[in-house]
Design brief:
Mean pLDDT of chain B: 92
Strand order of the largest sheet of chain B: 2-3-8-5-7-6
Low-confidence stretches of chain B: none
Shape of chain B: elongated
Order of helices and strands of chain B: HHEHEEHEEHEEHEHEHEHHHHEHEHH
Largest sheet of chain B: 6 strands, mixed, barrel
Structural class of chain B: alpha+beta
Oligomer: heterodimer
Number of domains of chain A: 1
Bound molecules: adenosine-5'-triphosphate, magnesium ion
Helix content of chain A: 25-40%
Number of strands of chain A: 10
CATH class of chain A: Alpha Beta
CATH topology of chain A: Rossmann fold
Distance between the termini of chain B: 28 Å
Chain lengths: 227, 406
Amino acid sequence: MSVIEIKNLYKIYDGSEVEVRAVNGINLNIEEGEFTAIVGPSGSGKTTFLNLVGGLDKPTDGKVFVDGIDVWSLKSRKLIDFRLHNIGFVFQSYNLIPVLTAKENVEFIMQLQGWSRKDRIKRTGDLLKAVGLADRMDSRPAKLSGGQQQRVAVARALASKPKFVLADEPTANLDSKSTENLLDIMEKLNQEEKITFIFSTHDARVIKKARRVITIEDGRILKDETK
Amino acid sequence: MKSNLRLAWRNLWRNKRRTLITVASIFFGVLLATLMSSMQEGSYSSMINNIVKFYSGYIQVQHEDYWDTKTINNTFVPTDSLIDEITSVTEVTLITPRLESFALASSEEITRGCMVIGIDPEKEKEVMDIGKWVSDGVYLEQNDRGVLVGFDLAKYLELSVGDTLVLIGQGYHGTTAAGVFPIRGILKFPSPELNKQSIYLELKTAQEFYSVDQQVTFMVLMLEDQYDLKKAMRKLSNQIASPYAVMTWEDMHPELLQMVEADRAGALIMKAILYIIIAFGVLGTIMMLVMERKREMGVMVAIGMQRSKLSWILFFETIYIGLIGVIAGFTGSIPLIAYFYHNPIPLTGDAARTMEEMGIEPLMYFSWLPSVFYNQVITVFIITALIALYPVITSYRLKVQLALKA
Ligand SMILES: Nc1ncnc2c1ncn2[C@@H]1O[C@H](COP(=O)(O)OP(=O)(O)OP(=O)(O)O)[C@@H](O)[C@H]1O
Ligand SMILES: [Mg+2]
C-alpha cells in the first residue's frame, strides 16, 4: 500500500470574476521512501497541492489517503492530531517559534506528542547532530542563519517520527551553498533513515537531486518522471 | 500547562518596549485607583468614626419608641439580662449608658437651650474620650455632681470653671426638672455644634435631675472594627426584642450613609473611565501582537498544536501583562499608602473649614482596607480576561493555509 494515495483532487477558488482551479484533478500515489520534487512555475498550484495533501487546506473535491486513512474525513481536533503524528512540515521560511531555542523547537513537537523528557532530550540531540547543528542547540532562531533555521525545521519535522515530510520550497530563501547543504541532509536522511520527502521547488539544482520529479501546471500533472 | 506558561512568558518579552508601555499604563491605572480608593475609604471611615465617637456610637439599644419621640418618658432600665445579651455578641467591645434630653441652661442673666447628656465618665473615656477635650478645668469623676460645658455655650452664658450653672427642663412624666450645678470643666470639641450646645454630667446626677430612677435613653455600643457592623447587628436583632429597639449609626445618620454612597458612586464612575481607557490601550497592544503573530500561529497549528493550547498561551500572555501591571501598581502604591496611613495629609482652606464645621479633624486619611487592593486585582483580571478573548477567538478562527501565507 502506498503511503499517500491522492484521488481526483480539486481545489477551486470561486473568485468574484473568475474561478481559479488551483488543483484541477490530480491522481497520484507516493510510496514509502520516496524523494520527490513537485515542480512547476509560479501559480501552478504547488503550495495548494501540498496543503491539501498535508491536511492544511480542504479540497473542493477528491480524497487524500494516508496509510489508508481518509485525511479529510477527520474532524478539526482529530485532524490536527493526525498531522502531529503523521506528517512533518517544513515551510519556506519562519518555521520556528522565535522564543524557543533550536533544541526547544525540536523538543516542542515531541512534547506535544507526550514524550518523556529523557527521550526528548536524546532524540533532539541526535536530530540536531544529524542536521549538523549540535553546537547551536541553545541558539534562538534569530541567531541562526536562514540555512541553519531550515535545518532545525527539518530536524523538527522528523522529531515526531512522521510517515512523510512535506516541504514547500524549503530552499527558496537560501543561498546556493545552504541549499546544497540542506538537500544533502535531506537526501542522507532519506537514504539512511528511509524518510519519505515530498518537496516543491523551482530550483534546478534541487530538482536535480530528486529521484522522482512531478511537474504540475495549472493544477494538473504535466509530467511524472522517476530517475 | 507549565510549557504554555513558559512560552507565554517568553512571548511577553519579544517586544519589550511595547510590553513595558502596556504594563506602565496598567501600573498608573492601578496606582491611581488604589490611592483614590484608599483616600475614599480613609475619609469615609474617618467621618464614620467621628460620628460614632461624638454622637451615636456604632449601635444603640433604645426604647422602641425613643427614635420617633425623643422624650425622657421613652426611656428604659438596662437590666442585667439585657446587658448580658448584648455582651454575648462578641463583636461588641463596649457598652455605655447615656441619658440625653433637652433643657434650658442659664447663668444669672442669660438663658439658652442645650443638650444635657448623662454619661458614665469611666466608660465614656473609650467612646468620646471627653477628658481629651477639656480645655479648662477637670474631667468628671465618679458620682460627680458637677457639669462640663461646651466652650461656646459657656462663653455665651459668660460662665467659667467654678461658676454655677442653672438647668431647667422637663423631667419624667411631666415633672419639673431644675438644678444648680458647679462647672467642673469647659469642653472644646473639634465640632462647633457640640461646643454650642452640650452639657455633660454624671449619669446618676442626670437621672436625679430628670427624676428618673435607673432609666437611660439608650445604650451606646462600640465595636472593635467598623466593618463588623452588619454581623453584630444581625446577632443583636436576633436577641433583642420589644420593648427595645436596636439601631445602627446607618439608621441614625442616613444622610452620612447617603453621602458616602453617592461619593462612592461618583468615584466608581471615575475609576471606570480610567480603566476603560487603559483597557483600550491593552486591547490595541494585544490586537497588534496577534496580527504580527498570525503566521507563527499558523505554523504551530499546522505542525500539530491544538488550537486550545495555542489559546491558553495567548490567554496567559495577556493575563501576565495585567498581572505585572497590578504588581507594579501595588509596589508603587503600597509604600505611599503605608506612609500616608501613618501620616495623614493635613488639609487647608475651605475643605478644612468645612470638615471642622462638621466636627471632623481636617486630615486626609488613607485606608488599608483589603478591598482597596483586591478590587483592582479583580478589575484588571476581568479586563485582561475579556481582552484575552480576542486572541483566543482568533486562534480558533485561524485559517491555517492563509496564515501560512502571511
Ligand atoms: N486563497 C486563494 N484565493 C484565491 N486564489 C488562490 C488562493 N490561493 C491560491 N490561489 C490561486 O491558486 C493558484 C495556485 O496558487 P499556489 O500558491 O498553489 O501556486 P504555487 O505553485 O505555489 O506558486 P509559487 O511557486 O509562486 O509559490 C494561483 O493562481 C493562485 O492565485
Ligand atoms: Mg507556493
